[in-house]
Design a protein that fits this description.
Layout lengths: L25 E5 L6 E5 L26 H6 L3 E14 L16 E14 H5 L4 E12 L26 E11 L4 E8 L1 H4 L34 E11 L2 E11 L5 H4 L10 E12 L2 E2 L5 E13 L2 E7 L5 H4 L3 E4 L2 E13 L9 E11 L6 E12 L9 E11 L1 H12 L15 E14 L2 E11 L10 E11 L2
Antiparallel strand pairs: 1-2, 3-4, 3-21, 4-5, 5-6, 6-7, 7-8, 8-9, 9-10, 10-12, 11-12, 12-15, 13-14, 15-16, 16-17, 17-18, 18-19, 19-20, 20-21
Length: 482
């Protein structure tokens, strides 16, 4: 039976005014702190210049305490510490009935503190083109959507996967750039979903159906998604300034979201490796407009998963196991494909390079034999710098549609018709489809501090039409400390 990953998504970036959405450079997402820092990556550079991307130095409350930040930066070392906090509460009552006795109306808070260490070894020790990246987090709290029966998309995406420890290792890897940035290699403990099917714009939002990647893209429990990582190797090439292609091998580890295997994230022996994934992704980054100030990013990807996974409908004899019993058939391989885009539609005259209205859309389709979600469709608008008096504020609106795989829904229907318990995915009825709308406004309070009121509306929570729709109010805060 296919199961749903319960680890949360990637960290958020309410304040991304320093994040350039420019084509001509690959916007590499450094999942290094509560905000997803985005730096130019694998760009064309003169042979005499460093191929290592500029070190992150995001806006912070303490810009340069005692001169330490400048001292480190001048030696090729970047250290950043921050906190992301997300609160959400239901303003509608949950479904009532004997089957739903555990459901309640409530609120919850979830968050994380994170530390990011980047080192430019070319600057520090003369190792040309080489850099290293280490990410650690500590997480706390819980998510409110489970209170009314939803297990498909967390209302607070920052929840989960942190192991309930003071320090959880997210990733640690080395990176080498060659040929003036045209070629990039990375290897170590890496999160697949931070490199593939990723965008810095996803975390304009707080719901896990969108941030830190559309949830359908991480439907497999074997895809490493922040804050989980596996041993991996990735190569990225940029044959021309406005496009790149990348691929890699990410070794699938059993239980990467479970405390018994990866509570601290420091388990390196690979004893639980049971297969691998090979993702391939192509992105085109055109610039439209008379002045080239309307950048776009058009992404196409495919992932081959060489991991034995149980079929969500058939047993080993080719019969529905929900009615015939027996052991679920094992499917030796699975796959995923996706298309994603973001395109700036309007640039506000006199505003920063990031100011303007941007449209996001995408489609993810998973192998229906093994998936919980066979596909997800999303669309969103992000409006940044629209108010001249508040140039660092932004407003976001998103819609996601999630379809439950036919095998999963048919299995649940058979179990229900025969009065058998034990529905998958914590379901209390047949799952079919779910939709979520989110609206937020990110207020730049002061240097390094953002406060974002947020509204979410769940249609068919957990993909079940028998469950009442749920409306939620909350907020997200982000503090970049130093």
């Amino acid at each position: 039976m296919a199961t749903d990953p319960t680890a949360a998504g990637n960290p958020t970036a309410p304040d991304r005014t320093a994040v350039p959405q420019e084509s001509g450079s690959n916007l590499h997402i450094e999942r290094t702190h509560g905000a997803s820092y985005v730096a130019p990556h694998v760009t064309y550079r003169p042979a005499s210049a460093s191929s290592v991307p500029p070190l992150p130095r995001p806006e912070s409350v303490f810009t340069d305490p005692g001169g330490i930040t400048s001292w480190l930066t001048n030696r090729g070392i970047s250290f950043h510490f921050d906190n992301t906090n997300e609160f959400a509460g239901a303003v509608t009552p949950p479904t009532r009935g004997a089957r739903y006795v555990s459901y309640r109306q409530g609120a919850s808070n979830a968050g994380q503190y994170s530390a990011n260490l980047n080192i430019n070894w070319e600057q520090l020790a003369g190792i040309r083109g080489f850099s290293t990246h280490v990410i650690t987090v500590g997480r706390y709290g819980t998510t409110a959507n489970r209170m009314f029966g939803d297990w498909l998309a967390h209302s607070s995406e920052i929840y989960g996967g942190g192991g309930n420890v003071a320090v959880h290792l997210v990733s640690a890897y080395g990176e080498e750039t060659l040929l003036g940035g045209r070629l990039d290699f990375a290897g170590g403990r890496m999160s697949q979903m931070s490199d593939f099917a990723a965008s810095p714009l996803f975390c304009q939002f707080m719901n896990n159906s969108m941030c830190g990647r559309p949830k359908g893209a991480a439907d497999s429990t074997f895809y490493g998604s922040y804050p989980a990582a596996t041993w991996a190797f990735r190569i990225k090439a940029r044959p021309r300034p406005d496009m790149y292609i990348q691929t890699g091998v990410y070794f699938a580890e059993n239980g990467i979201y479970m405390n018994f295997q990866h509570r601290t994230g420091f388990k390196f022996n690979g004893a639980n490796i049971i297969g691998y994934e090979v993702p391939v992704e192509f992105q085109w980054e055109p610039k439209f407009g008379a002045h080239g100030n309307l950048p776009g990013h058009y992404k196409f990807g495919f992932t081959y998963e060489d991991v034995p996974r149980p079929d969500n409908y058939y047993n080993v004899n080719g019969q529905p196991f929900a009615s015939a019993g027996g052991t679920a058939m094992t499917d030796p391989h699975s796959w995923q494909t996706y298309m994603m885009t973001d395109q700036k539609l309007i640039h506000y005259k006199g505003g920063s390079p990031t100011a303007g209205l941007t449209f996001l859309a995408g489609f993810i389709y998973n192998d229906p034999r093994t998936a919980v979600r066979d596909f997800e469709v999303y669309g969103a608008l992000e409006n940044r710098g629209f108010w001249p008096a508040r140039p660092m504020d932004s407003i976001g609106l998103a819609f996601t549609y999630t379809s439950i795989a036919p095998g999963t829904r048919d299995t649940e229907a058979l179990l229900m018709s025969e009065n058998k318990g034990g529905l998958p995915n914590h379901a209390t009825g047949v799952q079919t489809n779910a939709e979520i709308i989110e609206f937020n406004y990110a207020i730049h309070v002061m240097r390094g501090v953002t406060f974002e009121p947020d509204f979410q509306y769940y249609f068919n929570p957990n993909g079940q039409h028998a469950l009442r729709d749920a409306a939620m109010l909350g907020f997200k805060t982000y503090i970049s400390i130093f």
